[in-house]
């Protein structure tokens, strides 16, 4: 069966510091991968998606970047965090072709102070 | 772009009551999905619908894919305290990247 992991679970970082969040998927090959951000009590905002290694599409202009160095690894990064980057970051995966169904990871709670 | 209107935004009900929530759109979708999110956790898929008119159950949960392909509803029967959480609908249109359009969520609170 497929599983999705996110690391770390929680993170507190000062403004201006760098960021690296990791997402890994097991039990599937060539998945589509997604990064979402969720503000407190709000809906899901799609930040990036990837259909393959090295292929990244950005949905909104922002202070963040994403990379996919391996088939089942998706990384969210920033060189300098802003206060507005605080939120709950969710990684998700779907099959490469056909179904739209996405499966979410446990999330990372990021607080920028 | 595509938008999903999810209602109600929040519900406060008594344990044992039935719950109904829905999502509507001006766009057609090929897939309707319903997720539940507990506090501090990622959304968990409850029901996936792939065919217009489809009615699917998962325990006390029942969801339907509207015949016009522009709406879906989720019913929860005989609610219990652990039903508390945020419920999201999502529509898929088989676009590049299989991106989903999400509703704004329905926050369900259950009074024991």
Keywords:
heterodimer, A: 113 residues, mainly beta, 4-stranded antiparallel sheet, 11 strands, globular, B: 112 residues, 6-stranded mixed sheet, 5-stranded antiparallel sheet, 0% helix
Helix-strand sequence of chain B: EEEEEEEEEEE
The class by helix and strand makeup of chain B works out as: mainly beta
Largest interface (CB < 8 Å) = A-B, 26 and 27 residues
H-E order of chain A: EEEEEEEEEEE
> For the CA atoms, what is the radius of gyration of chain B?
13 Å
**Radius of gyration computed on alpha carbons of chain A:** 13 Å
Concise summary:
Chain A is mainly beta and 113 residues long. Chain A is built from no helices and eleven strands. In chain A, strand 4 and strand 5 form a beta hairpin.
3D architecture notes:
- The complex is a heterodimer of chains A (113) and B (112).
- Chain A starts with a strand and ends with a strand.
- Chain A is built from no helices and eleven strands.
- Chain A is mainly β.
- In chain A, the strands form two sheets. In chain A, strands 2, 4, 5, 6, 9, 10 and 11 form a seven-stranded mixed β-sheet that branches. In chain A, strands 1-3-8-7 form a four-stranded antiparallel β-sheet, with no helix packed on it.
- In chain A, a hairpin with a 2-residue loop joins β7 (65-70) and β8 (73-78).
- Chain B has 112 residues and is mainly beta.
- The mean pLDDT of chain B is 93.
- The A-B interface holds A 6, 32, 34, 41-44, 46, 49, 51, 57, 88, 90, 92, 94-95, 99-107, 109 and B 30-31, 33, 35, 40-45, 48, 50, 88, 90, 92-94, 96-100, 102-105, 107.
